[in-house]
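Protocol step 4 of 5: obtain the predicted structure for the target chain.
Materials: sequence only (see below). No template structures provided, no constraints applied. The aim of this step is simply to have a reference model before the mutagenesis design in step 5. Sequence pasted as it appears in the construct record:
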Amino acid sequence: MDIYFIYRSLKYYFPSFVRFQLFGYIFREQKIGKYFIAGKNTKIEKKFEAGACCCIGSNSYIGPKVIFGNFVMISNHVNIIGNDHISEEAGIPSILAGRPKNYYDLKTVVKDDVWIGQGVTILRGVTIEEGAIIGASSVVTKDIPAYTIYAGIPAKFIKKRFNDDEIKKHSLFLQKFREGNIKLKHDRKPVFIDS
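Step 4 output (structure tokens):
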């Protein structure tokens, strides 16, 4: 039996306190929500946070200070990297120029229900708003608006994900979940508390 499968299965049964205190300490200040899954050979750096029901595919690299909302779905070979060298100073090689002043404050935020395709590279410090989709092999260099689909190098607007009425309906579900009015019975079945 695969040791990863055993670890992933046991993780679901740990009480929240143990999972956040014990695993958060061991895995360098990481806070993960219920039903979090990370694929084989994925490396997650320190100060990582993820909400409920998030999935990161295999062979991905998640840099430091990354925050995921709920229901974030990331495919294989995705990297959140970069924005960490000064390259604009003539006469000083980049390797000697140091890091930008805001380097240690850079946070990458991926909000609720974002879907990131295979092989995407996201520069650190970017915010991807709720409900956005990033096409495979794209390079995200700037913030992505809510409920849009972006793709390409660099990633450019393709189309809106939903019409205005669908956005309201989808946003309402995510809001109710954040407020605790919807619970997850397991990673594929929501239970509505209020009618």
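Step 4 remarks: The radius of gyration is 18 Å. Residues 32-192 form a domain with the UDP N-Acetylglucosamine Acyltransferase; domain 1 fold (CATH 2.160.10.10).
Proceed to step 5.
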